[in-house]
Design brief:
Among the domains are: 187 residues, no CATH class; 130 residues, no CATH class; 100 residues, no CATH class. The chain contains 22 helices and 29 strands. Strands 5, 6, 7, 13, 14, 15 and 16 form a seven-stranded antiparallel beta sheet that branches. A hairpin with a 4-residue loop joins strand 15 and strand 16. Helix 1 packs antiparallel against helix 6, helix 2 packs across helix 4 and helix 11 runs antiparallel to helix 22. One of its GO terms (molecular function) is heme transmembrane transporter activity. Keywords: Cytochrome c-type biogenesis, Membrane, Transmembrane, Transmembrane helix. Belongs to the CcmF/CycK/Ccl1/NrfE/CcsA family.
């Protein structure tokens, strides 16, 4: 039975949200039009505030309706059918919400609502012009989910469209117009990870936060307040830098945990589209700091703050227009929104450029001459390096856009993305890291003191000498281990060490002076550590799963796969680097049971999400399920248990890399498991397994007629027939009152342990049935074929198959914890800077220096800045 009410309510709420955003934008504009900052028309202000509150309530209504559709499994709606399924846990249903384009737009809109409500209370005299921009952006964003068709014009894509309207060509609608699927297609397998529950909201909050400084910058240009906007914009920019940066690293860690390309950053265009605006955002923070401290770089600050938001819009266009369809593995497909996205981007780009050009000469500048001994120079150079790095990534990532545009105007383009994108980007971005590390150390040391040749030499000597000594020691160690260091690696190593030591030196100096700690110093230490972590883990990863057997695993594999993977037969010990490794079987995830459960302990049923326990499922002394109990399983993922033992220290650990068969996504999807040590990670993932979805190739059945107590030899193993007993319900037989079932009881001795095997012989409805039992560890299957009660003889069949195996890749990633710990320090530094500014209020208006005037020199003295 179709339920169209919730969809109708949701769609009407979208329309209401769009109309209310339009009214709010116009009302706030009229309230501020032709008036000085802080002087507003009370009537228009009241209408603007009311309209934005209505918009906020309507957005919340849309969210409730869409999540209600997903959570209620209302598969008559295309969004629920295409993104969710019956067996998803609640936290993955939350991920379903923003898996699709419409849901992710809605998430972005929601964060803008939250920020807009905060600004209505905190922006004070800036409220009208800032909220004009805010509501205007909401107008455009809400239009993306309107889903209104006017003739040939489509405005937005509605998340509330019915399946029959989205796919009208399906024949089922002819016979049953009210057909509702019993299940959905499910959440993308790669997104079924806890990071996907928290990463997208964090990232979209970072996107949303870039709108606030942009709105202040536009408001400053509009109202002729060319400097007062910088103070609130800096606070909001710090929040944006913190949250967007953390969101990016969350995505990197998700890739590290979930994908099997062997790292955390693949220079995919969608990754780049987020990285670019973050670099420019960080550069804008430094520009705003320069104005706050020395009345420098105000024009630069305007340009960078505006560019950050425009790059967010451009990133949205890249990832959602379909232009990257052949260049990125995780961009969205085109839903017909390309035109809207271009209009959205063009509107704010034209608005910004027109305002900047018309006000450019009125923006105050300083003629202060910067010398080598001015810290402002090195801050400015560092910001320039960040922008150059962003431009390099932007230029290459945009190649599909150039081709699409040239094709649109009838010009054939031969531009192509680099064949090896990782090498292409890394070659340039390594030098970006060198520049950032060097400038962060120099600027921080110089920021807190008066500088001349003597004082600067004294300050730089110790951290510079220690950095050179540390780099020399590392280079010797690398060469001692038979590896080389390229010039770019040496430069990055030296400057990153200098960045750490220089910033630590200044932090300790401030502590001695009893001055509040510098958030910038802590953040710079974190970024330098991140650079060291990237250099060590990516530049010197060590593949420990080298194929030393001389075997070619498969002609279908490329040469690298055959060389860099190890074949593990089940229960056989194999040498791999410094470890002895043993693959011990397949496991499944059973909700409510810690860890994973051996598949051999479970009888599978006709319902793929349910199984019967063959024996007690317990952890320690706690029994979670008794033999015969029905339990729920998550069957899509198989976990492969791999035991590691260090041959020297005898230390043991166990990993569970997972894999699943997903033909829609290219076959085998493998996710790694990682063992974390203090100075390195062991990163392991499955490269190949026997075909999971195909019947095993069993040998011809060999019959054995046995009496109780007989022993038979099965290849390299032997089995004792211990007796016959009534079959247990754990076999999933579903026996009726007059049915009969017995099972043989065998004890099979393998290499490492003994196995209880129970083949079943059943008579149901006067028909004979047999249920064989399999020992996956040994590749054996026993069938109960016949009973001769007069002679006390029992006939069993034995067949064999190729022993289970996996092909595994294992990589040692040295010092990768420097990357993650550096991220935490960077976030801490941003947080400290935000905390320092929590009580700063808008400074009273002070006449800014006119163009061409020379301000009084500022004597630096210790004070806490970011």
């Amino acid at each position: 039975m179709l339920n169209t009410l919730i969809g109708d309510v949701g769609h009407l709420s979208v329309i209401l949200a769009f109309v209310a955003a339009t009214v709010a934008a116009y009302s706030y504009y009229m309230a501020a039009k032709g008036r000085a900052l802080g002087d507003t028309d009370a009537g228009w202000m009241k209408l603007g505030r009311g309209a934005f509150i209505v918009h906020s309530v309507a957005v919340l209504s849309v969210i409730v309706c869409l999540f209600g559709i997903i959570h209620g499994h209302r598969y008559e709606y295309y969004y629920a059918w295409s993104h969710s399924s019956n067996h998803l846990p609640i936290y993955y249903m939350i991920s379903c919400f923003w898996e699709g384009q419409e849901g992710s737009f809605l998430l972005w809109i929601f964060w803008h609502v939250c920020l807009g409500l905060i600004l209505m209370r905190s922006a004070k005299r800036w409220e009208a012009p800032v909220m004009t921009v805010f509501a205007g952006v909401q107008l455009f964003l809400t239009s993306m989910i309107l889903g209104i068709v006017l003739g040939d014009l489509k405005i937005g894509s509605s998340p509330f469209i019915l399946l029959r309207d989205f796919m009208p060509e399906l024949p089922v609608w002819q016979t049953n117009p009210n057909f509702v699927p019993v299940d959905g297609t499910g959440l993308n397998a790669l997104l079924q990870n806890y990071w996907m529950v928290i990463h997208p909201p964090t990232l979209f909050l970072g996107f949303a936060l870039t709108l606030v400084p942009f709105a202040y910058a536009v408001a400053g240009l509009w109202k002729g307040e060319y400097s007062a906007w910088t103070r609130p914009a800096l606070r909001w920019s710090l929040w944006g830098g913190l949250i967007l940066g953390v969101g990016i690293i969350m995505g990197a860690y998700w890739a590290y945990e979930t994908l099997n390309f062997g790292g955390y950053w693949n220079w995919d265009p969608v990754e780049n589209a987020v990285y670019i605006p973050w670099l420019v955002l960080v550069a804008s923070i430094h520009g705003l700091m320069l104005w706050q401290r020395s009345k420098l770089a105000l024009r630069t600050s305007f340009v960078l703050v505006i560019a950050t938001f425009l790059l967010i819009l451009y990133a949205t266009f890249l990832t959602r227009s379909g232009v990257l369809g052949n260049a990125s593995v995780h961009s969205f497909t085109d839903l017909g929104l390309s035109g809207q996205l271009m209009i959205y981007l063009a509107f704010f780009m034209v608005l910004s450029i027109v305002l900047l050009v018309s006000r450019w000469k009125k923006i105050p500048i300083s003629e202060k001459e910067l010398t080598t001994y001015n810290p402002e120079l090195w801050v400015f150079v560092g910001a320039t390096v960040l922008c150059l790095g962003a431009f390099q990534v932007l230029f290459t990532t945009s190649i599909p856009v150039y081709n699409a545009f040239l094709g649109f105007i009838g010009i054939k383009s031969n531009l192509a993305l680099p064949a090896d994108q990782i090498a292409h980007y890394t070659k340039f971005q390594l030098w970006l890291g060198v520049g950032v590390a060097l400038c962060s150390g120099l600027a921080q040391l110089m920021w807190w003191q008066k500088n001349d040749r003597a004082s600067l030499t004294n300050t730089l000597t110790v951290p510079a000498m220690l950095a050179l000594l540390g780099a020399a020691l590392v280079i010797l160690l690398v060469q001692y281990n038979g590896k080389k260091m390229e010039l770019s690696y040496i430069a990055l190593l030296t400057t990153a060490l200098f960045g750490v030591l220089a910033n630590m030196s200044m932090v300790f100096t401030l502590l001695r002076r009893k001055v509040s700690l510098s958030g910038g110093g802590i953040a710079h230490i974190g970024i330098a550590l991140m650079l060291l972590g990237v250099l060590a883990s990516s530049g010197y990863s060590n593949i420990i799963s080298q194929n030393t057997s001389g075997l070619l695993y498969s002609r279908e594999f490329d040469q690298t796969t055959n060389q860099d993977n190890v074949l593990l037969w089940r229960n056989d010990v194999t040498r791999m680097g410094a470890y002895d490794v043993r693959y011990t079987g397949q496991y499944l995830d059973v909700p409510g049971v810690p860890g994973y459960v051996d598949k051999q302990m479970l009888y599978r049923t006709d319902d793929e999400y349910k199984a019967l326990a063959r024996s007690d499922v317990k952890r320690g002394d706690k029994v979670y399920y008794k033999a015969g109990d029905t339990l729920e399983i998550l069957p899509e993922n198989t976990y492969y248990r791999v035991e590691y033992q260090d041959r020297e220290s005898k230390e043991k650990f166990t990993l569970y890399p997972r894999a699943q068969v997903n033909e829609q996504m290219g076959g085998l999807l493998a996710s790694p498991d990682v063992k974390v040590f203090l100075d390195h990670d062991i990163y392991s993932h499955i490269s190949a397994v026997p075909p999971i979805d195909q019947e095993k190739d069993w040998s011809e059945v060999k019959e054995h007629v046995l009496s109780i107590g007989d022993t038979i030899f099965l290849n390299d193993y032997f089995a004792v027939f211990r007796g016959v007993e009534p079959a247990k319900q754990t076999a999933g037989l579903g026996l009726a009152k007059d049915d009969l079932a017995i099972q043989g009881d065998f004890l099979v001795s393998g290499e490492k342990k003994q196995y209880h095997v129970h083949p079943v012989f059943a008579v149901r409805n006067r028909l004979i049935g047999r249920m064989p039992d399999e020992v996956e560890d040994l590749g054996l299957r026993l069938s109960f074929l016949n009973v001769d009660p007069e002679k006390g003889k029992f006939t069993f069949g034995v067949s064999t198959t190729q022993k289970d195996y996996i092909i595994l890749k294992a990589v040692e990633k040295p010092f990768i914890n420097l990357l993650w710990s550096g991220t935490l320090l960077m976030a801490l530094g941003f947080g400290m800077a935000i905390y320092r500014r929590r009580r700063e209020t808008e400074a009273p208006a002070v006449p800014a220096p006119e163009a061409g005037s020379r301000p009084r020199p500022v004597i630096p003295r210790p004070k806490a800045v970011a």
